[in-house]
Design brief:
about 220 residues, 4 helices
């Protein structure tokens, strides 16, 4: 659900996070367990640390992000550092505001246009149990659990997606690409099901900012 400079970031990979140090355990009910956890909240507010990890293990980029999500259509992803940028959608329009360029790009949007991880966060589990082989990695403690998703399609962009929880709280999402690059999202200060007003998912461009309207419909 994220584009331009951030889209490439969000499709990179997630740190060599805790796959919690144990082997994956096949679980025929893993998909349903994951869906239940993702459906347990109606909205989310969190700070996100994003790391882009190269295939040799080097950290290419670290970003600080503020995320707001309100099902089914509201999503805001504001990069604070190192490159300020705001991506926000109300489910109909996507605004991509880049303060350093003094411009905002506006284009039509729908949940189908977003990446798998963003769709799953928004509550769309379409294809989850048919497009992925899902297993569960139990952690060193009962609180730690990681859902490991491996795409059935060998041509899929990602070789693996890992979604980690501490207790019932979302802790991390890791996207591993076939190139060896990984993108890591670590969620902190997470609040589950907070009250968020709809106006948070609409954007009014500041004065004197260039507006590029890409409405091709």
């Amino acid at each position: 659900m994220l584009g331009r400079r951030s889209l490439s970031s969000l499709n990179a990979a997630i740190l060599t996070l805790a796959l919690f140090g144990t082997s994956a355990l096949a679980d025929e009910h893993a998909a349903q367990r994951l869906i239940q956890r993702m459906n347990a909240f109606s909205s989310l507010r969190a700070d996100v640390e994003q790391l882009i990890i190269e295939s040799d293990g080097g950290v290419l980029e670290t970003s600080s992000i503020r995320m707001l999500l309100k099902k089914p259509n509201g999503f805001s992803w504001e990069t604070l550092d190192p490159f300020p940028e705001l991506l926000v959608t109300n489910g109909e329009w996507l605004w991509n505001y880049q303060p350093d360029l003094e411009q905002v790009v506006i284009e039509p949007w729908s949940i189908e246009d977003s990446g798998f991880a963003a769709r799953l966060l928004a509550g769309d589990s379409t294809g989850l149990d048919t497009d992925y082989r899902i297993s569960v990695v139990e952690g060193a403690s009962a609180e730690l659990i990681d859902f490991r998703l491996e795409p059935v399609d060998p041509a899929a962009l990602h070789s693996r997606i890992d979604i980690g929880f501490v207790g019932e709280a979302l802790d991390s999402i890791v996207l591993s690409e076939r190139s060896g690059q990984r993108t890591v999202w670590r969620f902190t200060n997470l609040v589950s099901s907070p009250s968020i007003e709809d106006k948070e998912f609409n954007f009014t461009p500041p004065p004197e900012v260039e507006v590029i309207n890409n409405d091709y419909r």
